Amino acid sequence: KSVFYGIFGYSFKKKLYKDLVDVLFSIPLYRSLYCVGSGLDVLKRVKRMPVRPCVKTFFFQLHCGVLPVKTWLEEKGLFVPWSTNCLLCKKAETVEHVFIECWDAVFHWHILQRTFKKDLPVNPHGIRYLTVKNEDEIPYDMIMLLSLHSMWKTRMSLRHADVNIHTVRENFIENIVYVREVYRALAEPPDWLPLLDQLASFKRF
């Protein structure tokens, strides 16, 4: 053993360990497209966010590529009534369509970015890794997550033909109000709390 370490040294052992981990625990398929991009700590960030547990569950499904959009359900061999098209746009209901291309998504992101006066990474990478920069300690990634969840909640209400269907705006305000009350209960509320008051009166579109 001492001869082995004398020949190869600690650096070799460390590299061998790293290579072994890479072989046994390879990058998951859902991360293979963005394994060198930014935001790889997104699951840790979302875990620390003061949002409802259902929001975290939703994002885990979105991040891992198992969100039950119609095209995903069909790929898994599950029955999808009528068609795999979006009920609003009559186009294939993919993850990108739901959160980027659909009318609800386009209007919501437009109003939100105008409210912030800030560009958000509304693209396939951005919605899965929340790659927006949190300037002045404002959690833009959390607000982006709440937006994504609001869109999905409205879509599920439409799919299940709920009696009282809330719009994306109404679901977003509900999420914002919940988070705002959590921050208000802190001994020292953050300086950016008034921003949540502004979002709680989110404009109609």
Verbal overview:
The protein has two domains: 36 residues, no CATH class; 163 residues, no CATH class. Helix content is 58%, strand content 0%. It is globular. The mean pLDDT is 87. The protein has ten helices and no strands. It is an all-alpha fold and 205 residues long. α5 packs across α6 and α8 crosses α9. It starts with a helix and ends in a 6-residue tail after the last helix.
What layout of secondary structure does this protein have?
Blueprint (H helix, E strand, L loop, with lengths): L1 H23 L17 H7 L4 H12 L5 H6 L19 H7 L1 H14 L7 H6 L10 H20 L8 H17 L8 H7 L6
Helix pairs in contact: 5-6, 8-9, 9-10
Shape type: globular
The oligomeric state of the chains shown is single chain
Order of helices and strands: HHHHHHHHHH
User: How helical, in percent, are the residues?
Assistant: 55-70%
Number of helices: 10
Counting helices, strands and paired strands, the structural category is mainly alpha
Largest sheet: none
Quote the average pLDDT. 87
% residues in beta strands? under 5%
- The whole-angstrom Rg is 21 Å
Q: Would you count the extended β strands for me?
A: 0
**Low-confidence parts lasting 5 or more residues at pLDDT below 50?**
none
Q: How many structural units, i.e. domains?
A: 2
